[in-house]
Known about the structure:
Layout: E1 8-11, E2 28-31, E3 52-55, H1 63-67, E4 74-77, H2 87-92, E5 97-98, H3 105-120, H4 123-131, E6 152-156, H5 160-171, E7 175-179, H6 185-191, E8 193-195, H7 198-204, E9 207-210, H8 224-229, E10 235-238, H9 247-255, E11 261-264, E12 284-286, H10 295-313
Parallel strand pairs: 1-2, 1-3, 3-4, 4-5, 6-7, 6-9, 7-8, 9-10, 10-11, 11-12
Helix pairs in contact: 3-5
Bound molecules: glyoxylic acid.
Amino acid sequence: MxxxxxxxxxxxxxxxxxxxxxxxxxCRTVVGPWxxxxxxxxxxPYLAEAEGLFCLLTIKVDEELxxxxxxxxxxxxxxxxxxxxxxAACTARRIPVGNTPGVLTAATADxxxxxxxxxxxxxPQASKDAREGRxxxxxxxxxxxxxxxxxxxxxxxxxxxxxxxxxxxxxxxMKLLYTDIPLPPEIESELGAKxxxxxxxxxxxxFVTLHVPLTPETxxxxxxxxxxxxxxxxxxxxxxRGPVVQTAALLKALQQNWIGGAALxxxxxxxxxxxxPLYAQPNCLIVPHIGSATRNTRRxxxxxxxxxxxxxxxxxxxxxxxxxxxxxxA
Length: 330
Ligand code: GLV
């Protein structure tokens, strides 16, 4: 097909070219800036003609945007979470929406354990003290942290990532509680995981880690009431979505020592502004949404997003479609 007849795709952000080789010769692309925090104005004139949209989780794809893109035939989100997309509005227009599950499970579970360990063993503070001259001698009572072995990890949400965290935590000798629909009994016994209701999980766990998608049901599910149920030494880890936790309640919990600490890969708002009081909390470790940020994982996410995009443009079923009902007979 002559290049000018290829379908037009909007890539909301510029990405490394070697991640996008699958698109070569298949579509024309217009590309937004790498650091766009919302749909960039420079892309606006292309919406009328665009047949594909390749976006990141920071881009809101809502009715307003869809209205301006009447020819759109596929939305491909380079993320497993898709709370940035109004899926119902896409479905109403019979636009399939793709995401990138599976390829980021291990990387996100690894980061969860890294945060849990870093918070448990006060690694950021100890590292800072060493650099800043406070490592005077081997200090028997200095930088004391918490053990993992024999303690209880509460996993809120036992999907792919929750289970990968469970496997890793089992290796550390932790006892496991979880909330979600029940796992098959053989997986429960392989992991040694016990299903409980959320209040029991919060009361019994030394560490609590969140792995639920952001939905109307999970938004704000960890608030003051839930934080007050946790043990005073317990550490909360969030690598899911920021708004699952109520930020004001978490700040209060950390300031008033209702819990021992928090380790956050995601926040609400996101990014967290540099003057936000959470940064001033010594018992709060914050990293900038890097759960899937390994070289291999991010490349695989981009490739999967390209596969979803091309399938949509070619009228094939998306390999990973979050609204397969678009394929039902009209
Ligand atoms: C990252 O947060 C993702 O949803 O892929």
